[in-house]
Design a protein that fits this description.
15 helices, three-stranded antiparallel β-sheet, 452 residues, alpha+beta, eight-stranded mixed β-sheet
Length: 452
């Protein structure tokens, strides 16, 4: 599409996730900028009439189902109406503890990137790593040494953009494996259709299940709740595993310039409740891909019984590419991967909140936007006013929390931000509370199960 169309639809209505793919088309007039709101956003540096601009939220582009069908449909591939095409689904972890303990979950992403390099199936891995103190703290980088992969392990709840590394891929020949969240991978797939150089050079993609993206202010809010100055923090671990606690009850750890490490469980930190969506990008409320449907392999958390009890972490994995599947089969046979087949219902259960928010919730948000006369991207979910009054209230309150927190000046003042958001959060908590009868019924059920 033309640059002017992107400006008047996606950008004007704030549906940009900051992926930076719009800058990579040949002759693109866009450049990415880290804004005062703590997110990447395109700025126009050339002519608005330039055509061929790519964006994952653009109106007239193939959706994830169509893109994945072009890539993966065929013998040995299944289709599920909720999460698209797949070869196999697994739960499990790496046998090598160094991968598992240094990863956010079961170590699968780090292992896969390391293995592709070690086996010479790829020349480079494009992934997110630390840049050091200052802003931005994280950025995409290109790695060719398998051992350097360990330094990029774990999740980074921080905005990044692909613009710089895509420029390097265009200049430097080679086989690249790119790791990214769903909308980033979709943007890459659209770019590959538009620009043959990226289709030739990006040979594999690794997807990460995604709840939503945060602005830089999320890190600042967490840092402000430690007895240290943000500028003295040299590294940040958003997913610090705590022995003895369930995998989904992890903590946040910071490393200071003096070598000291400080750790706090996330249930002691304000703002870490993912369902509230503090500092969430607006685009994330209009995305319908939770697991990375257009990636060759996707990884998430198996936060379902019995795996959630294991503090070391367990992956939920979806495979799609035949070469990746063969690599996985060999690794399971050799014992390098302790993975077992999982059912589609387990995958849905592990991401139940995400699917509900981006199916039912998305339908309602689209309906609200259309009612106000706002342009919205075309999604695979039809706009509708959902039946449940309680759910309608919940989705509206979440939108308010997102909007207020995103624009708040109190991101380095947790007490003031908590006070600002308290009335809305209390209303959310009230909606989650069960009635007296329901609480009694659940308590009786637990007592019966305990004495069986």
């Amino acid at each position: 599409m033309k640059a002017a169309e992107l400006l008047n639809t996606v950008l004007r209505n704030d549906y940009c996730s900051g992926c930076g793919v719009c800058t990579a088309s040949d002759g693109s007039p866009f450049g990415m900028q880290l804004t005062g709101e703590g997110r990447y956003f395109p700025v126009l540096t050339g002519l608005e009439n330039i055509d061929g601009i790519v964006c994952p939220f653009a109106q007239d582009t193939p959706d994830e189902t169509a893109l994945a069908g072009q890539l993966y449909a065929g013998a040995g591939v299944h289709f599920h109406e909720e999460f698209g095409y797949y070869r196999q689904i697994y739960t499990g972890h790496t046998a090598d503890e160094s991968f598992r303990l240094n990863g956010s979950s079961g170590g699968g992403v780090t292992w896969m990137a390391h293995e592709l390099l070690r086996r010479n199936l790829t020349d480079f891995v494009v992934t997110v790593g630390e840049t050091g103190p200052g802003t931005p703290r994280y950025a995409y980088r290109i790695i060719s040494n398998p051992e350097e992969i360990f330094a990029t392990a774990k999740s980074r709840y921080y905005p990044v953009s692909l613009d710089g590394v895509l420029e390097q891929i265009r200049r430097q020949p080679g086989r690249y494996t790119l790791i990214g969240i769903p909308c980033f991978i979709k943007g890459i797939r659209l770019l590959q259709q538009q620009e043959p150089v990226f289709a030739e050079r990006i040979v594999f993609t690794i997807g990460i299940f995604c709840g939503h993206l945060k602005s830089t202010h999320y890190l600042s809010l967490l840092a402000a709740q430690f007895p240290a100055h943000e500028e003295d923090i040299v590294s940040f671990d958003f997913r610090h595993k705590i022995p003895g606690r369930p995998a989904n009850r992890y903590g946040t750890a910071i490393q200071l310039k003096n070598g000291r490490q400080l750790v706090k469980p996330n249930d002691q930190l304000f703002g870490t409740d993912w369902g509230l969506g503090l500092f969430k990008l607006n685009a994330c409320d209009y995305c319908d891909d939770i697991i990375g449907e257009t990636a060759d392999i996707s990884f998430g958390d198996a936060w379902i019984p019995p795996f959630e009890k294991d503090w070391k972490g367990t992956n939920m994995v979806v495979t799609r590419h035949p070469v990746i599947q063969k690599l996985v089969d060999e690794a399971i046979g050799k014992g390098d991967l302790v993975w077992q087949p999982a059912r589609p219902e387990q995958l849905l259960q592990s991401q139940a909140g995400g699917f509900r928010h981006r199916r039912e919730g998305l339908a309602y948000r689209l309906w609200l936007a259309r009612k106000k006369g706002r342009w919205t991207p075309r999604k695979r979910v039809a706009p509708r006013r959902i039946h449940s009054r309680k759910r309608r209230k919940l989705y509206r309150l979440r939108m308010q929390i997102r909007e207020i927190s995103f624009a708040s000046a109190f991101y380095r003042q947790p007490d003031k931000l908590r006070k600002q958001l308290r009335p809305i959060i209390r209303r959310v908590e009230k909606l989650y509370r069960h009635s007296l009868w329901t609480r009694l019924r659940l308590r009786i059920k637990r007592l019966v199960q305990k004495h069986k």
